[in-house]
Design a protein that fits this description.
Structural class of chain A: alpha/beta
Shape of chain A: globular
Radius of gyration of chain A: 23 Å
Pfam family, one (chains A, B): Bac_luciferase
Family (chains A, B): Belongs to the NtaA/SnaA/DszA monooxygenase family.
Order of helices and strands of chain A: EHEHHEHEHHEEEEEHEHEHHHHEHEHH
Strand content of chain A: 5-15%
Keywords (chains A, B): Flavoprotein, FMN, Monooxygenase, Oxidoreductase
Largest interface: A-B, 87 and 87 residues
Oligomer: homodimer
Strand order of the largest sheet of chain A: 1-2-3-4-9-10-11-13
Number of helices of chain A: 15
Number of strands of chain A: 13
Largest sheet of chain A: 8 strands, parallel, barrel
Helix content of chain A: 25-40%
InterPro entries (chains A, B): Diverse_substr_monoxygenases, Luciferase-like_dom, Luciferase-like_sf, NTA_MOA
Protein name (chains A, B): N5,N10-methylene tetrahydromethanopterin reductase
């Protein structure tokens, strides 16, 4: 039987996310990102389309590598201004019942104690529909404005992240035992202190001696998302991620990435299929291939290559503004440029990738590609991506929002359903059930968070030991 | 003409807020604090009652001074478990149009750059209805679980807070000039980089060289709340606070506090009336005085003195568990105990305040008092509080939620309206307009945030200087 295709909508609380300039298109409502109506409308649309989740990207900085300036991205609203993605989730949750919400948080600048509470709170309010996209921030501007003179080194960021997650798991899974909360009005007991435990965490980066602030939420641990592409990032994903995001320019190349990720999962005692891997794609669909191609050309007129080069600067650290638009980048013998260029040259070795060509590509698809055509063409192509790429799902970015999502729900969802490749109803009510099936609300037993389930039972609790002595 | 009485509802994302034990009452829905329905129901009720704001308290720790243990407060759910108050605001905003939301944030554990974004995001999503209750955390358990071995000293916490606010004001008021955002689709300009400025803040505690992440929100600076009672806290309030919360046991004693606060405001170049001062009160109202007294006695049966002593421990640092319930506290010659006791002995010098009496008082009114009676009696008493206490409004705590608020809206609001002491319709759409009148959406000119309005015009911007060089 063919694998069901999972589906995330990729959005961000900003005007220009992955398709800089497209906010100017008459169909775009992306500049309404700062209104609740935009978010509740999109959430309801996605739930109508039976999406697994809305995935919210985030940066706590801005892109100022290109031309050594933030001016290009400000002019075009490319990921700046950018709002806090946590803030609109409860409004979206109030108008939906099944849709999940994956929220990006750059833990480099957070403390685990309050962040664990933030996610647990949302898991309560959404009744188990929250995911946590673990990011170790890549923007120098983010580091600087958080009072650091420069970024923490890449590998140390991951070392901090490992311990950070460990603290969160202890708080979410271990501190409050199942059954600790009684809500017993007649007996006068809200919770039994004997079943609430201090986690007594004393690590290299964090000291969290106390008890968790929140009672157990439906999922306890939110669904863990991750997108790291480096080898250290892959190891982190293999251990922690339940959903992983990858870029994608050609399915066969993506296959190498997904295979390596699943190897990592196995190396950490998990099954290959425990990782749900999503490739970022844009879809432009209409009644016929011709109409879709016409739509693509129409979109392209609004694309902004300056904003695209702004994104490239932030993602790669490479300022392509130092070159002429017609310079062929393969001829530039700088390691960071070649490293950035690899996916492009591998995908299309015969093409001469100039600055202009790279900018054009990014402006219409980020580090992915647009899939363009009739519902049948698009469905064929998505099936090919899933099967050849060894993927579980698509992380659907937009050119115009919510227009791109509307088109997908109208044209592509019915076609995939006809082919038996897409759900016709939600299986459960929590985000984890959306991905792992009905009943799987908590982390799988093989997940590192699971080891803290009941781990403190019988150990010192809030009841039998004065809290202060445990510190 | 008599002064209009302003009204905040005092709530917290927890089960037992100011009336420990009352969650067990059949009328209480407080244990639904972790559902969206509870919050949207309460918000709609408050807006029907024309409240100025819902004010959300918060702690990022728990009360473990009493009996050197968190067990008493866990058993009774006294402010633990506690959810993140930011998380349910957008759902409440989606079902209301005027009600403001004051959110407590303990800035001791925050960085100004992301916190400024969080408030700005909510100010956008609520269309200008957000307030920021600036707190410098008082719980040792909060400090410990944020990786600090002990709390930062009281005075240094306020010094940090001063600089913290300064950074926020620069980001909210100064970084993006009025008119910076064009949203010009035809011209291809979302924002003009020449009107967006790095704030170049380099202080003792924070370095924030860059530009703000958010475009200007309706209020720009959220309404600033504060509740500090110490002399350092009063100075902070005199400078920064637009709304101040005070405790209240007797109106004439509260008058001394409000006079000193308005003196502080004057000392900082503001008018006495620029401070809107709210006293925390509980109200128990019914058709007649007798019925209200009956209701009070019914509530009292559910009150929990153990939870109350837990709160006392956290607020005062004094463990009253070291004494016998019948010990008269005046006879205990410990400074911290006498300091805590002062409001009680001053209000009622003839009473012998035993541990039991203090616990009983706190369990039914926190550091305030319940006002009990018919709508007429309650309105008389509230008018007396406002006029004798030199107050602007009431910070209405609940015994049962939303029951206490329902009773107030049903019985007291019409009575106050009849007397011309309460609004009959909202004046504007933003929180600041609720308190300062229609049109006053931005901070008053005398507020310290106002000094950064347009302060960077003509100075280096994102357009004319490479971003990195400004650092």
């Amino acid at each position: 039987m063919s694998k069901r295709i999972a589906l995330n909508a990729f959005d961000m609380s900003c005007v220009g996310h992955q398709a800089p300039g497209l906010w100017k298109h008459p169909r775009s409502r992306a500049d309404e990102y700062n209104t609740l109506e935009y978010w509740t409308d999109v959430a309801q649309l996605l739930e109508r389309g039976l999406f697994d989740a809305m995935f919210l990207a985030d940066v706590v900085g801005y892109y100022d590598v290109y031309r050594n300036s933030a001016a290009p991205v400000i002019k075009d609203a490319t990921q700046i201004p950018v709002n806090d993605p946590f803030m609109h989730v409860s409004a979206m949750a109030a108008v939906t019942k099944h849709l999940g919400f994956g929220i990006t948080s750059a833990i480099t600048y957070e403390q685990p104690y309050p962040l664990a509470r933030r996610f647990a709170t949302l898991d309560h309010l959404t009744r188990g529909r929250v995911g946590f996209n673990v990011v170790t921030s890549y923007l120098k501007s983010a580091a600087e404005n958080h009072g650091l003179t420069d970024q923490i080194s890449h590998d140390e960021r991951y070392e901090i992240a490992e311990e950070f997650m460990d603290v969160c798991y202890k708080l979410w899974e271990g501190s409050w035992e199942d059954g600790a909360v009684k809500r017993d009005r007649a007996g006068g007991v809200f919770a039994d202190p004997a079943l609430v435990h201090p986690i007594r965490h004393h690590g290299k980066y964090f000291d969290v001696p106390g008890i968790g602030l929140t009672e157990p939420s439906p999922q306890r641990t939110p669904l863990i998302f991750q997108a790291g592409a480096s080898s250290r990032g892959r190891a982190f994903a293999g251990r922690h991620a339940e959903a992983v995001f990858v870029g994608g320019i050609r399915p066969d190349l993506t296959r190498a990435v997904t295979d390596r990720l699943r190897d990592e999962a196995e190396a950490h005692g998990r099954r290959r299929e425990d990782l749900k891997i999503f490739a970022m794609l844009h879809v432009i669909v209409d009644e016929t291939d011709a109409k879709a191609e016409q739509k693509r050309r129409d979109y392209e007129r609004y694309a902004d290559t300056d904003g695209a080069l702004g994104l490239v600067g932030g993602w790669s650290g490479v300022d392509l503004g130092r070159f002429d638009e017609d310079d062929v980048l393969e001829y530039v013998r700088t390691e960071s440029i070649q490293s950035f260029l690899t996916p492009f040259t591998t995908a299309d070795p015969n093409k001469k990738w100039t600055v202009r060509e790279v900018a054009k590509h990014i402006s219409m698809g980020g580090m992915g590609v647009p899939v363009v055509g009739s519902p049948q063409t698009v469905a064929d192509e998505l099936e090919r991506w899933i099967d050849e790429g060894g993927l579980d799902g698509i992380n659907l970015a937009y050119h115009v929002s919510p227009g791109s999502f509307e088109d997908f729900v109208e044209w592509v969802v019915p076609e995939l359903q006809k082919r038996g490749r897409y759900r016709t109803a939600y299986e459960g009510t929590t985000l984890r059930e959306n991905l792992y099936g009905a009943g799987q609300t908590k982390v799988l037993d093989t997940h590192p968070a699971a080891r803290y389930r009941g781990a403190y039972a019988g150990q010192p609790s809030a009841a039998d030991t004065p809290a202060r002595e445990l510190v």
